[in-house]
Amino acid sequence: MWTMEEAAAFGALGERLGLQLHSTDVRIMAGLAARLTSLNVTPARATAIVYIALNAGCDQVTLGRALGINRASTMKAVDELEALGAIERRPGRDRRTNALHLTAAGEILRTRIEEATLAHDREAFAALTEEERAQFSRLLAKLRRGATVEAGAEAVEG
C-alpha cells in the first residue's frame, strides 16, 4: 500500500484502487520472487509445479489455461521445469498430448515452495490482523468473480 506521499506523487491516479492494488502486487511479488530464487523457480513456475501436483496427468493446454498464459509460454515453462528435474512428460490421452507429472524431486520442491510461500504470505501481510486477512481474501475473490464476468461479457460483445 502506498503512503499518502507516494499516492500524491501520482495525483488523482494515486487514489485509484486499481493502481494501488497493482503497486502493492508488484512489491509483494518481488519479495516472493526473491524468496523463491534459492529454489531456482519464479512465482509462475512455482504455481505451475503446485498445479501439476494437484492435477497430475494434466496436459500443457490445461496448464496454460490455468496459469493464464499462451501456448508458447506454457511450452517454455514445461521445458524449464523438465530441465530442472521437477516434472516429466508421459504419454497423454492421445498422440498429440503429454501428461504432466511431478518427479520425486518435484514433490520435494513442491513442499519447499509451499513452505516458502506460506512464510512469505505471513511476512507480506503481517500488517493485517487474521480477521483482516480473511476479509481481504474474500474481497479479492469477489473482485476476481466480477472480473471474470466482465471479461466474459466483453468476449461476447467483442
From TrEMBL:
PROSITE patterns: HTH_MARR_2. Keywords: DNA-binding, Transcription, Transcription regulation. It comes from the Bacteria. Residues 14-145 form the HTH marR-type domain. One of its GO terms (molecular function) is DNA binding. Pfam families: MarR_2 (PF12802). SMART domains: HTH_MARR. This is MarR-family transcriptional regulator. It comes from Caulobacter vibrioides (strain NA1000 / CB15N) (Caulobacter crescentus).
